[in-house]
Design goal:
about 400 residues; alpha+beta; Heat Shock Protein 90; five-stranded mixed beta sheet; two-stranded antiparallel sheet; 11 helices; about 60% helix
Length: about 400
């Protein structure tokens, strides 16, 4: 059977349904075979009508050969219904009119070819055009049947053509509407599928950007910190060997932390089945003391001030806050060695404000706010905006640099 315009294959192995399904599939795949079958049925019905009597009180047997000839001509014309549907309706209508005028019964059997032609016209054309052609054929049929003078039941003579000629028009129009509806369903389904694919590609692109940003933050921060620690240790190795030894041990911890974060970030690219080791949780403000200790070992003086009641943040905001602090302190280590840095965390009702301010230090490069940190400032701004926050950075009047970020608490 057909369901929503497609074959129903629910039980293809069942002997009672397999045969009809194969037959319908064959007709669907070979439309000319369906045409032959339909035209053959119309020919049988119209030829049979040629052997019937009249509506008169005394039935009269008419010669069969005029009706058979007209039936063959009408059914032969049906073969060109795809290329000339209106011409086919005209030819079959004239044949039906001639048969009716000769005296054959005006029944659906006699109208079979013209009914098929009208159905195909309504199916492939438009309802208005098919209705006008049906009306024209009916206008020809009714007078020709009445003028023969052999019919006593005038009501049947008038109603038969009117009803049976407009019936295929209505049927063809309804099938056409049904086809359009099913086609629209398929179109919407294809559009939805394309939209899902585009959305998936967009999400993959965003995820790649996010992972690239994570890799940049991990590598840039830890390498800059390790470089600062190694440089300080090399400077102190002769004069203060104990402090240099402490810095070297801190350097080992920095590289180990870099490897852990790098493994956790790259682990996001693994396939679902590759679960040989658990991923490290994403860093957050809970690791701020470790971050401060690492930069203190590298030569910075970091002071952390917290205002308001500390509250847990949404995972995305927590990671964003940590990465911005990490990038800001890394920039200070690179551009203002030995600086004094003040980190202020202000917890308001629904906003966390983070300020990182340094005094310029001994190694200040004297660059402007647009130059300090290079892509670091761009990355911090993008991170803040990704969770709906705001970012500002600039040079202080005394030569230092300030980074200010406002992040929604529950983004």
């Amino acid at each position: 059977m057909m369901r929503n315009g497609v074959m129903d294959h629910e039980h293809p192995h069942h002997p009672e349904t397999a045969m009809p399904n194969r037959f319908l599939r064959h007709l669907h795949d070979h439309p000319r075979s369906a045409d032959v079958l339909t035209i053959g049925c119309a020919l049988v019905l119209s030829v049979y009508a040629s052997f019937q009597g009249t509506w008169g009180t005394t039935p009269k047997q008419l010669a069969w050969w005029p009706g058979v000839s007209l039936s063959v001509l009408a059914c032969a014309a049906l073969w060109w219904h795809r290329s000339n549907p209106r011409t086919v309706v005209v030819v079959t209508g004239i044949c039906a009119t001639a048969a009716s005028a000769y005296g054959y019964l005006t029944t659906p059997l006699l109208f079979a070819p013209v009914m098929v032609a009208l159905y195909w016209l309504a199916l492939e054309g438009d309802r208005k055009s098919a209705s006008l052609y049906a009306l024209a054929v009916a206008v020809l049929l009714i007078p020709s049947a009445l003028l023969t003078g052999t019919y006593k039941n005038t009501v049947l003579v008038v109603l038969n053509p009117a009803f049976f000629l407009f019936l295929p028009v209505a049927w063809g129009s309804s099938v056409q509407v049904r086809r359009a509806y099913v086609e629209s369903l398929f179109t919407r389904a294809e559009l939805a599928e394309r939209t899902r694919e585009e959305e998936a590609r967009r999400r993959v692109g965003e995820e790649r950007v996010r992972i690239a940003r994570e890799l940049h933050d991990v590598v840039a921060h830890h390498l800059a910190l390790a470089n600062a620690q190694a440089g300080t240790a090399a400077h102190l190795v002769r004069r203060q060997p104990e402090q240099a030894e402490h810095l070297i041990s801190e350097l080992a911890g920095t590289t180990a932390s870099a490897l852990r974060e790098l493994k956790a970030t790259v682990g996001l690219l693994r396939r679902p089945e590759e679960t040989d080791a658990p991923l490290e949780p994403a860093p957050g403000l809970s690791r701020l003391p470790e971050l401060v200790a690492a930069h203190t070992a590298a030569g910075l003086t970091v002071e952390v001030v917290m205002e308001g009641t500390e509250r847990p943040l949404a995972p995305g905001t927590d990671l964003t806050a940590y990465r911005i602090l990490q990038e800001a302190l890394t920039n200070v280590s690179k551009h203002a060695a030995g600086a004094v840095v003040r980190v202020t965390l202000v917890y308001a009702a629904d906003v966390l404000t983070i300020t990182v301010c340094d005094d310029g230090g001994q190694g200040s490069t004297g660059v402007t706010g647009d130059e300090v940190g290079g892509y670091g400032l761009i990355g911090m701004r993008e991170r803040a905006q990704s969770v709906g926050g705001r970012f500002a950075a600039g040079v202080n009047a005394d030569g230092g640099f300030t980074v200010t970020v406002e992040l929604p608490m529950y983004a």
